[in-house]
Design a protein that fits this description.
four-stranded parallel sheet; UDP N-Acetylglucosamine Acyltransferase, domain 1; 199 residues
Length: 199
């Protein structure tokens, strides 16, 4: 290959790499600009009509809206997800102070009831503690939770990520459910164990 031609090919490859890098940087700037414009628009809108009852946007916008209304929220590692990961069927009852972690999907089928203070988690981490997350890796991650038709979760119960509560099952108050619950069964305790079958 002649030296002049080889130099042209090398320069063309460098030019292509440079153009790719510039396009990637430009794309990032456009994304940041769109998020910034969305934040400003929504903050102005909610300043006019009042604060939103449910935050339905991506986590950076949700955090910006809360800050605009006086919430003191750190800008480092705070994620406020929208309730897009939630399915609630007919005739469900959610009492006060329920906490639904929507990192993963939560499905409440028809007729499910949650007592006051029920917590349903779909993820688990150890605050990025390298030691714990290496040794307890099997307990980390995001996993969906399914609560089947007619199940009753009593006050203060905790359902951890990846659990399925069976049809017409009952979880006793303050129980910690860390394994699946069969249909038509009553579980209680920490961790929750089957007490009896409901027949």
């Amino acid at each position: 290959m002649p030296i002049i031609y080889r130099d042209c090919v090398t320069q063309s490859e460098k030019l292509i790499e440079t153009v790719k890098a510039v396009m990637l940087r430009l794309r990032r700037y456009i994304q940041k600009a769109l998020i910034f414009i969305s934040k400003i628009f929504l903050i102005v809108l909610f300043k006019i009509i009042g604060p939103p009852r449910v935050l339905r946007y991506g986590w950076p916008i949700n955090a910006a809206i809360l800050r605009a209304f006086g919430a003191n929220i750190s800008k480092v590692g705070v994620f406020i997800h929208s309730p897009v990961n939630l399915t609630i069927g007919d005739n469900c009852l959610l009492n006060g102070n329920n906490f639904l972690d929507l990192s993963g999907h939560i499905t409440l089928e028809k007729g499910v009831s949650l007592g006051p203070g029920v917590t349903i988690m779909t993820h688990n981490r150890y605050n990025h503690n390298v030691f714990l997350e290496e040794r307890l890796a099997h307990t980390c991650g995001i996993k969906d939770v399914l609560i089947k038709e007619g199940a009753g979760i009593k006050a203060g119960a905790l359902i951890v990520h990846g659990i399925t509560i069976g049809k017409n099952a009952v979880v006793a108050g303050n129980a910690v459910v860390n394994r699946d619950v069969k249909d038509n069964s009553f579980v209680a305790g920490v961790p929750a164990r089957m007490v009896k079958e409901i027949i």
